Amino acid sequence: MRISAEDISVSYNKKDRIIKVPDKVSFEPVSGEVTVINGRSGSGKTTLINVLAGILLPTEGRVCYDETDIYQISDEKLSAFRCENIGYIPQGASALANLTVMQNILLPSALAGKDNVKFAEELLEMVGLEKLKNAYPDELSGGELRRLAAARALINSPSVIFADEPTNDLDDENASLILELLKAQAEKGAAVIIVTHDIKAQAYADTLYRMDGGKLQSYGISAKEKEDIYDTA
Amino acid sequence: MRLRALPLNDLRRKPIRTAALTVIALVLSAAVFGGEILIKSLQKGLASLEERLGADIIVLPEGAENKVDLENILLQGTPGYFYMDKSVADEIAAIDGISQLSTQYFLVSANAECCTAQVQIIGFDEHSDFTVKPWLKEVYDGSLKDNEIIVGAGLSTSVGHTLSLYGVECKAVGKLERTGTGLDTAVYTTNDTVKRLIQASADRGIAVLSKQSPEDVISSVYIKAAEGADIDELAISINTQIDGVQAVRTKTMMTETADKLNVISKSITVLTAVVWGLAAVIMLSAYYLTANERKKEFAVLRTIGFSRKQLSRLVLTESLITAGTGGITGVGLTVLVIVPFLKAIEQKTALPLLMPSHITVSLYGAAVILIVLLTGSASAALSAYKLSHIDTGKILREGC
Which of A103, A124, B70, B319 is within CB 3.0–4.6 Å of B380 for a Cys-Cys bond? Predict the structure, then answer.
C-alpha cells in the first residue's frame, strides 16, 4: 500500500498566534520498512502520525492511501479503513479498562467482523501475556499494558502501523520486545512508523527522520551507528 | 469477543454507575406509571360510580348531612342511614317526566359477633330496580328469596356462601361488578329480608340502628327521567312540590366529586412531572460527568476504528439498557405494589378507585417504559455527541 502525505499542515491558535505544526510536511513511509521519527517534544511528531492515521484532519494538505484521499471519504468509510489497515499504538496506557486482555486484543477484529482468536493467542504469546489473557488492565504493569497495546494494534495484520513513543517508561527488556515485534511486522511487509525520543529505537530504523519546528528532515543512519546503539542497548 | 457485548461489559465493570442510573430510571418509571395508574383508577372509579348509579336524580331526606352521608356511602363505603316517609315515593311518581323510579332502604349491620362484618345493607325493590341488577356479575336464577343477598365485589363472600347478619345466615346468590366505590362493600337484599334482619336483632337484644321498618320508610329514591324531560326542572319540581326531601342531580354530585378528584389528579400529575424533570436532570448530569471520565476510552476506540456513529450508538445502547432495565423493573414493581394494595389505597385515601383493564395497564406500562427509554437516551444524547466528536489526537497526547 502506497502512503503519501502531501504538504500537511496543522494550525493551532497559541496566545493569539497561529502556529503550524507540522508545517507543509510531505512524507512517504515505505512498506516493509521501519521509519523512525524523532524530535523534541512539541515538534509535531504525534500530530503528524495522527494526521497520517486518519484521526486528525489537517488544516492543509492531503493524505492518500494508494489513490484514496482519506479525508475525502465519510467517517464510516475512514473508520472502517482504519480498523482494517491501520494499527495504532497510542502514547501511554491505552487499554480499555472494562475489557480483559484477550477482549482488548480481539476488539479490532470484532469491529472488522473477523474471528481472530487463534491469532490473538499467538500475539499474546509473542508479547508474553498469555497467562494474563483473562486479567483486566488494572491488574497489569506499565510494561504489560504497552505490550497489550502493541498486540491489539497488530490483530488485524494492518499494512501500516503507527507507534507513538512505544518504549516510553519501559525497561530495556520490554522496550526491545516491542521494537522487535514492530520490526518483524515491517519484515512481513507493513509500513511501520515509530515516533520516539528513544535513541535505541533508531537502531531498528530503516529510514530516520527528525522533526523540528514542524518541519520534517530526513537523514540516514550508518551501520556503525546502528551497531553502537545496539551495543549500548 | 462480540461487539454487541461491549455496552454490557462497560455496564458490568461500572456497577455503581450502572446501578445508580438504573435506580433513577426505576424511580422515574414507578412514579410515572404509578401516578398514571392512580389517576386512571380515580377517573374510572368515578365514571363507574356515575354509570352504576344509573339514575338522573337521587331523592333523599332534606338536610346537608344526609347528602354528605350519601356521598360517604357511595364514595368511601362508610355505612350510613337516613329515612323519609315511604309516601314520598308515591308523591314523586305523580310528577311528570319520570320514566323509572325505585326506592332503597339503608341499614347498617352491627360491628359485633352477630355479624361477619359491618356492612351497608341496602334493601331494594326488585320489581322497580334499575340500579342494582344491571351490574350483576354472577347472575342468580329468578328473584331473591328470603335471606338471600347480593354482595358487592369488595366483599369476600362468594356466591353460594353465607354472610352472618344479626345471627341470620344470609346466602349470597349474586355478586356485583367491581365499581371501585363504596358500593363494592354493600349488601343488597329485599325489604322483606331487611325486616327479618331488624326483627332478628331485636330478638337477640342487639340495638339495631333503625327501628323503622322498610314498610314505613325509605332512604332514597332513584329516578330516571323520561326521554326529553328536563332533569334540572324535574329536580326543582320535586324540591318545590314535596316537603322534607332534597332531589340531587347525580351529575351535579358527580361533578362535585370530580372536582375534588381533579385536584388530586393534578397534584399527582405535578408530582410526576417533578420526579420526571429531576430524573432527567440527574441522568443528564450523570451522563455528562461520565462523558468527561470516558474521553480517553473513546479516543482509544476511535484509533481502533470506531466511527462517530458507532461511538454514539455505544453510549445510547448503554443508556437504553439502564433505562430499559430500570423502566421495566419500575413498572413491574408498581404493578406488584398497586394491584394487591389498590383496595387498601382506596380505603386509606377514601377515593373511588377502579383499576383499568389489563390491556390498558399493559399499554400504559409499555408507554411508560418507552418514555423512560426516551428520557434515558435523550439524557445520554449530549454525552453521546460529545464523546463521538472528541479530539482523539489531543486526548491521546494529553492522556485525559
Answer: B319
